[in-house]
Amino acid sequence: MELDNLYQEVILDHYKNPQNKKLATNYDAQVHHVNPSCGDEIDLNLTITDGVVANISWDGVGCSISQASVSILTDLLIGKPISEAYSIFDQFVSLMQSKGSIPGDESVLEDAIALAGVSKYPARIKCALLGWMAFKDASVQAQAKSELG
Ligand code: ZN
After folding, report:
1. Ligand 1 centroid vs 147 CA: distance in angstroms?
2. Tens digit of each residue's pLDDT (9 = 90 or more) over 82-135
3. Ligand 1 centroid vs 51 CA: distance in angstroms?
4. Maximum alpha-carbon separation in the chain
5. Residue 147: its pLDDT value, please?
6. What value does the mean pLDDT take over residues 28-35?
7. Nearest-CA neighbor of 19 among 63, 95, 71, 87?
8. Which residues contact 56 (CB under 8 A, 6 or more apart)?
């Protein structure tokens, strides 16, 4: 897989120095997602407070793409209103499904733009999306819980 060198550095930096990789003991929702085709696994704990992504913490094993992607996600989404987090989520998923046809908006996606090149490698897209799908799953559970009460 050939990715732009600068982007490769961003991915390796997150892989070597993962952000928020220590499961919080307090959370609204906890999910475990796996990507069997590559052997990637993550646990993700999410707290949503007053409609804002208050905390995302995680632990996991797997390839550099999967682990870097979830680290990037936590940096990007913690502190964002859930509606904005979903908008960023949608843009990232569109980018991953673009087969390299769209460049992505760096002002929105920040470090996640480094994963743009992955969209040209169908076998790796699930690696990049693993943490994002876990976040979406956890957010639905956390919001259902807060509506119940
Ligand atoms: Zn992987």
Report:
1. 34
2. 999 999 999 999 999 999 899 899 999 999 999 999 999 999 999 999 999 999
3. 31
4. 48
5. 77
6. 98
7. 71
8. 20, 44, 45, 46, 47, 73, 74, 77, 78, 135
**H-state helical runs in the chain:** 5-16, 64-77, 82-96, 106-109, 122-148
Joined together, the tokens standing for residue 125 give 């897209």
Pairwise CA distance, residues 72 & 54, whole Å: 16
Give the integer Cα–Cα distance in Å for 23 and 127: 20
Q: Which domains does the chain have, with CATH numbers?
A: 3-148 (3.90.1010.10)
Rounded Cα distance, 106 and 112, in Å: 8
> How far is C-alpha 118 from the chain's CA centre?
14
- Measure 143 CA to ligand 1 centroid, in angstroms: 29
* Residue 1 pLDDT exceeds 80: no
State the distance from the centre of ligand 1 to the C-alpha of 116, rounded, in angstroms: 15
Rounded-to-integer distance, Cα 42 and Cα 30, Å: 11
